[in-house]
Each structure stands twice: as structure tokens, then as C-alpha cells.
Amino acid sequence: MLGIIVTILVAVIVAYAGVELGFVPANADVRPGFLERWLARTSLQATLARQSRGLTDPLPDNTQTLLAGIKIYGENCAFCHGDASGRPTVAGFGFYQHAPTLGRHGVEDDPEGETYWKVTHGIRLTAMPSFGRTLSDTERWQVTAFLKHMDALPPVAQRAWKQLSVRSVPASLLLKRPPLR
Ligand code: HEC
Questions:
Q1: Ligand 1: which residue has its CA nearest to atom 7?
Q2: Measured distance CA(145)–CA(142) in Å, rounded
Q3: Terminus-to-terminus CA distance in the chain, angstroms?
Q4: Which of 41, 44, 114, 168 sits in a 20 to 30 Å window from 124, CA-based?
């Protein structure tokens, strides 16, 4: 019994000392360790499975919805996720967990409920913000609908999406050369 208590105590002291002495990395420019990746990924998937089930898009499936979603994307998301060119942005690339370039690696295959949940609540341990208190319910479904249909937009919406490249993501925000390392 005493052995167990001493072992636990030593483990707690070592962990505490590790944090206090700077042995637990606080930098954002390396690949996260196995434990951190497992924890973040597993808990996200389990949370999504429990909380996003049954969330269905209440908006009419039309071009107006998509155009509204594109505008919201340009104003709130392109800074990190980039535009139709699929090029990373300086900030999006620099995050610990890069922000995916949605113009290239989109989420069309994900259920809309999952994307809506991520936009509403954000993703813990990453730079993905929660928009539940800054965008209305309708706005979050609009941007979700756009992401869902990004690879098969009607011509008017496709034009608006391409134009966004020029207007909403100033060239200075896009990575100008391949990352240095
Ligand atoms: C400050 C930067 C930032 C902003 C602004 C931002 N995101 Fe994100 N987003 C991220 C990061 C970083 C991730 C990656 C999280 C991870 O690895 O789990 C992410 C992940 C996502 C994902 C999941 C992608 C996938 O492949 O599973 C979706 C969907 C998403 N964001 C949508 C949005 C939308 C929509 C907006 C705007 C309303 C937005 N994001 C704004 C940083 C951002």
C-alpha cells in the first residue's frame, strides 16, 4: 500500500517539476507528441459522435444560402483557411495543427452536423475558434452549407468563390514562398 502511494507521489512530483522547469514544450513549431495527438483526436471524434448526431441543416438548399456562406467565409475564415487557390496563409500555416487549406482539402465528405458543430464550438487544443457567440445560427449553417457544396457550386456561386481569392485574402496574407523548413 505504502509503495503505491509513494510511487504516485513521486510521479506527481516529477510531472510538476517537469512543467515548472520547462521540460513540457510550449512551442508551436514542432509536431505534437503521440499522447497529445491521441488525446485531441480521440476526444474530438468521440465528442462529435455524441454531440453532432441529429444536427440537420434547416436552411433552403439554394444559391442564396451558398452566396451568404461564401461572404461569411471571406470575412471570418479565409484569413486562416485560405481561398479558392488552395494556398496556405501565413497564419494558418504557422499554427500548431496547421489550419487546413479548405480550398484544396475541403470537408465536403463530412456530415453537415459535424462541420456546424466545429464552427459553433471550435476545436480545443487548436487555433480553430468557436463562432457560437459571434455568428448567428443562420450564418453558421450558411457557411456550413458552402463548405459542404464547395466542390459542386452552381456557376454564380462558383464565380463568387473565385473572386473571393482576390478580394478577401490580400496577397500579403498568403505564403509567398515554400516554408523555410
Ligand atoms: C484563427 C484561425 C482560424 C479561423 C479564423 C478559422 N479556423 Fe477553422 N480551423 C483552424 C485550425 C487550426 C483547424 C485545425 C484543427 C484540427 O487540427 O483539428 C481548423 C479546422 C476547421 C475545420 C475542420 C477541418 C477538417 O478537415 O476536419 C473546419 C470545418 C473549419 N475549421 C471551419 C472554419 C470556418 C467555417 C471558419 C470561419 C467561420 C473557420 N474555420 C475559421 C483555424 C481557424
A1: 128
A2: 5
A3: 51
A4: 168
In the structure grid, which three cell numbers stand for residue 80, read together? Answer: 486562416
- Residue labelled with grid coordinates 463530412: 110
Distance from Cα 86 to the centre of ligand 1, integer Å = 14
The answer to pTM > 0.70 is yes
Query: Which residue ranges make up each domain of the chain?
Result: 34-173
In whole angstroms, what is the distance from residue 11 CA to residue 69 CA? 50
Measured in Å, residue 49 CA sits from the centre of ligand 1 at: 18
Task: Give residue-wise pLDDT tens across range 138-150.
Answer: 999 999 999 999 9
* 67-99 residue pLDDT tens: 999 999 999 999 999 999 999 999 999 998 899
> For residue 88, what are the contacts with CB-CB under 8 A and spacing of at least 6?
82, 98, 99, 101, 174, 175
Find the 181 Cα to ligand 1 centroid distance in Å. Answer: 23
